Amino acid sequence: MTIGTTAKRTASVPFQPAEYLTASDVPGYLAEALKDGDHRVLPLALRTVADVLGMTELAARTGLSRETLYRTLSEKGNPRLDTLAAILRAFGLRLAVAKVKKAV
């Protein structure tokens, strides 16, 4: 009598959201990431979209070093406005200001 399973086990792999995004998805992805108003999500969302292009290509488009981009877009990163604008510009995007509805 055999106890257990004969099913072959496979190793799990980390989820890579950038594998499911294209450059045309980036504006909507960033907009959704920012919807709840938590500004801390922006560097992490930008890191995800940076992986769509690749950090080397993003560095070339922004004129920033890969090291600066990795540091800026890390969990503890705090991008300066000019850095943020350069990254967005690399995707053909810019910052915009919108009025927030008052809480009831």
Describe this structure in words.
The chain is mainly alpha-helical and 104 residues long. It has a domain at 23-90. Helices cover 45% and strands 0% of the residues. It has helices spanning 26-34, 41-53, 55-62, 66-72, 81-90.
List keywords for this structure.
mainly alpha
C-alpha geometry: extended
Distance between the termini: 66 Å
Task: Give the biggest beta sheet.
Answer: none
**Proportion in β-strands:** under 5%
State the share of residues found in helices, binned by percent. 40-55%
Q: Please provide the ordered H/E string of secondary-structure elements.
A: HHHHH
Total strand segments: 0
| Structural class by secondary-structure content | mainly alpha
Specify Rg, calculated over alpha carbons: 19 Å
Q: How many individual helices?
A: 5
The whole-number mean of residue pLDDT values reads 87
For this entry, what is the oligomeric state of its chains? single chain
Stretches with pLDDT under 50, minimum 5 residues: none
In short:
The protein has 104 residues and is mainly alpha-helical. It contains 5 helices and no strands. Helix content is 45%, strand content 0%.
Structural topology:
Layout: H1 26-34, H2 41-53, H3 55-62, H4 66-72, H5 81-90
Helix pairs in contact: 1-2
